[in-house]
Predict the 3D structure of the following.
Amino acid sequence: MRSKPKSKFHYHIFSIFLLLSPQLFAGTVAQTANTISANKGLALYNNYYQQNEGEVEVYYDNIEDGKLVGGKTTLALPPVVEYQGIMQQASASWNCETIINNGPPGNRIDIVVVGDGYTLSDMDAYYLHVDNILSGYFAQQPLASYINFFNVHRVDVISNESGVDEPDYGIYRNTALDMSYNCGGTPRLLCIDTAKAWNAAGAAPAADQILALANSTRYGGAGYTSLATMAGNNSQSVELALHEFGHSFGKLADEYEYDGPETYTGPEPPQINISIYDAGQQASLQTKWYRWLDLPNVDTYEGANYSMYGIYRPTYNSKMRSLNRPFEEVNTEQIIFRIYANVSIIDNSTPLSSVPISCYTNFYVVPVKPIPNTIGIQWYVDGEPVSDANAATFSPDVALLTDGIHEVSVTVTDNTSMVRNEVKRAQLMRKSLQWRINVVKPDFNQDNFVDVTDFAILTNYWLDACSAPGWCEGSDLDRDGIVNFNDFRIFARYWLEAVIH
């Protein structure tokens, strides 16, 4: 057993020094910004460091007498310059496996699972711990319904020794990510070297959130911004992961009372799930969870944010108050909003264009679909909804349109009943696309009837190259630069029909 208390002690002293004097390192970080981009993991951490301005709020939780208790603290982030020469090769040497692949990383929330204190011989146990946590993770609403909005990657981080540091028991391990219980003197606070965690995540195709598993059975964890830690082999690991996800991703507050001022006397908190206003005041001010107050389980229950009085939570007992509970309605809605803040509801579509396109285009959209599918689609022509045009594909009825420029548009909305804030639904869960089309019809001689005379014009230009403005007397109907079978197909659709111009 190798002891390293001195380095751990120095790290925490140095973190406090950084918290007090972050300006001392600002210039150094700026000078190294250009060089770190060569290493993906280090670049991820640099972005994390900059976004959090050198420090991060960390939630921690514990179970006492069957109740969830804990608090939050602020930890300094180690400066990027410290890692300039020591992590260049690490993430590149670790295997990464994508275990849930639901779409392009640019439009998904990419969760990266990393482990600490797992040696090469511990890898089978690590795989099992990851599978156990993820199976329970995506069984919980709203993640069960919105699993298609996530990718999950597992990075096989290999440590030199099994287990992680437990300084309160005199246990120190030589591990890759320096995870440690008793962080800052709090036994259940399981900290991690954030720079090394993001560097490890750099082995994945993309990284938005990190789940860090300690090779331990001891209960503990932490909810950093975009990063959560937990014991990989504790019976409450899944529940703790979900609770910390509520903090790190959902931006939710703790709803229990513990070790805070008995009465909260501060201003209205920014988190959606705690408030200084009771039900009547919320309804009058139309704030926080007033839209949900008609439900029998939703009210303003006193006691939250570590205080017993002066502050309220929306339900008697949600996952942000106790483990093994659902998130409940208000927290569920907030997590859905956070999902859509990171994922566009439309994955793919007919390419947008700055110039008018063919009126014979078969338009399409590819939405990201919840389970069950609550996506609604409506197509429009010139701003008017088209009856029964609610599928993912749409072809405008050109015969009903006059010649010239028209607009085709589509609106895609997630109509889930798990959301009641219609303003945010419109902002985050709805997207509209528009195209301009140039309407031309196969009545080439303009006599308002498609007949043999028009067919003669078409055949006269068969397989000819065409261009604007004449487009071969209009016979290149799809404006692709040649008169061919696609133009004939369009022509045949109108054979012996009257048309309007």
Summary: The CA atoms of residues 347 and 366 lie 5 Å apart. The chain is about 25% helix and 25% strand.
